[in-house]
Design brief:
One of its GO terms (molecular function) is DNA binding. This protein is mainly alpha-helical and 265 residues long. The chain has 11 helices and 5 strands. It has a 3-stranded antiparallel β-sheet with strand order 1-2-3.
Length: 265
Amino acid sequence: MVRWDAEKYKLYIKQWIDFCCERQADPYNPPLTTVLVNLHERGLSNTTINTARSAISAITLSEDKNTIGCHPLVSRFIKGINKGSPPTPRYLSTWNVQLVLTYLASINPLDKLDLKMLVMLIAPVSAQRGQSLHILDIGPGCMKKVPDGHKFLLTAHIKQSRPGYKTPTVVLRAYPANPSLCVCTCSNEYLKRTKPLRGAETKLCFTKPYKRVSRETLSRWIRTVLTSAGVDTTIFKPHSTRAAAILRAKASSVPIQEILKTAGR
């Protein structure tokens, strides 16, 4: 498996191996019934079951030497789950982006520049997933300053990556009307202040003890700022910045093609 798949499936593979060990089954060449029992007993959501199936398929083969996730019985099992419990959206509504912008403006991120605030600005402006925010790179060929902002080329594998798919460019547009809320002004100031400390590190998100920030830390920071801004984080998770930004853009009559181009599919 490539590293991205290994990271994504690590938890599911560990749980699968533990499950097989309890039943004295070979986790790499298991009976089909073991796979179905494992998926059924865990009570996972539809999306999580599909991820678990992919994780199991990545390390096992069925008796006919095909991936076990493609076995007709497994496919029928997944379809049955989807029919019995149709997938529903996580949120029926979302929070108002203006809440966060008002909060950030009140503390003036440029004067009290904090990476948490910068990340919180980038998240709704770019409407990207946390994974994409985490891999933003300022290295040669990755970041380009243009007249109206910054462009980032995503060079790492992302969720949408697939054969024939062109990875979108993340664009951060300047907002000269209010420098304290301008993601480009804030990022320029942040890069200026961290330049003496970076060494060879090129990831945008970089903090003490002077190393790149983990994806989990980015999510925690976004949650912290959302809470401070008055957003109910018991309901809305850090990933909700994406939905909130897209809905705000749609409400502002931004063309749907522009939204898709900016946020990625």
